[in-house]
Amino acid sequence: MSSISFIGLGGMTHAIASRAVAGGNSVELIGRDAAKAKGLAAELGTGATVGTFGAVPVGDIVVLAVPYTSAVPVVAQYGDALAGKVIIDISNTFDADATGVVTPEGTSGAQEIAKAAPASAHVVKAFNTVFGHVLVQERPLDVLFAGDDARAKADVSAFIASLGLRPLDVGGLEMARWLEGIGPLLMGLARNGAGTFDVALGVDLRG
Questions:
Q1: Which positions ≥6 away from 202 have C-beta within 8 Å?
Q2: How far apart are CA 39 and CA 159, in angstroms?
Q3: CB 89 within 8 A of CB 109
């Protein structure tokens, strides 16, 4: 099992960390609101601890669970504290009305985060294609991920599998733009009656 640090204390952290603890992973919760972090750790129970915002995360895998507007500044603030870490970017980059993305053509939020991270860190895009309230449901789900480093992707794949989810590798980090484009797609499906936000994408791999 893995040692996972979460930067951010929102709904996605709660959803992923709950499954992580249930899957036998150790979890560190990090946020600017120490009281909120302690409350979430108490709710998650054994296997969850509280870290200090800005300090070197305990986990080999760091889940960056903050809005995209905050992601690059947070990574820049952490600086060398993230050296050697696998950073999972779960952010969505959709615009104000969730019909497109805010990143310029030819790049993605994950790629911009990678530019801000230490050279020895490896960014993997994952989890942004699943709503948090769907993640907490006990049903099989596919998690699409992308990254450039094979070892980092293998670690992330194993972590996803430990959550009882199916990891599906879509390629290099350049594919993150298309994963981020799934955000507006899911919002469009939800708004137009496909499950009323209780919707998730899946892949049929039958040969």
A1: 141, 142
A2: 24
A3: yes
CA–CA distance, 201 with 188 (Å, rounded to integer): 13
Please, which residues have CB within 8 angstroms of residue 132's CB and are 6 or more apart in sequence?
Answer: 10, 11, 12, 14, 15
Smallest CA-to-CA distance from 87 within 7, 24, 22, 18 is with 7
Q: Is the pTM of the predicted complex or chain greater than 0.90? A: yes
pLDDT of residue 156: 98
Phi and psi, residue 53, nearest 5°:
-60, 130
169-204 confidence digits (pLDDT tens):
999 999 999 999 998 888 888 888 766 677 777 888
Query: Taking a C-beta distance cutoff of 8 angstroms, is the pair 87, 119 a contact?
Result: no
**Which residues are registered as beta bridge partners of 132?**
none
Tallying the residues shown for the chain, one arrives at 207
